[in-house]
UniProtKB/TrEMBL annotation:
Membrane topology recorded in Swiss-Prot or TrEMBL: Multi-pass membrane protein
Protein name: NADH-quinone oxidoreductase subunit K
Subcellular location: Cell membrane
EC class: oxidoreductase
Domain of life, source organism: Bacteria
Similarity-based family: Belongs to the CPA3 antiporters (TC 2.A.63) subunit C family.
Pfam families: Oxidored_q2
Keywords annotated in UniProt: Cell membrane, Membrane, Oxidoreductase, Transmembrane, Transmembrane helix
Enzyme Commission number, as recorded: 1.6.5.9
Amino acid sequence: MLEGCVFATVLCGFLGTIFKKNLLMKIVSMDVMSTGVIAYYVVVAARGGVFTPILTDGEITGNYADPVPQAVILTAIVIGFSIQALMLVGVMKLARNNPTLETHEIEQNNTP
């Protein structure tokens, strides 16, 4: 069930990226798709019965969770945020020269 919701989120973001004509909506759709991919990774990596890898008394007892997937997810979130900021700067630069953010109108204005 949860995997289905995550897959629907990724699919909605993917379809929005393809079919939306507004550049701002494309960026939002890409963010939704990125969120779905990160959620899928979290759903796959989630396990019960493990502890966080924090030393309390100097000894590790029992099973502990692998911290590498957490570091990978944090890195993916930071990279996704920076890419989104870069795309928004590009859209702001396009908006200075064009009165609209619709892709077909921008293409018509910039074709010789």
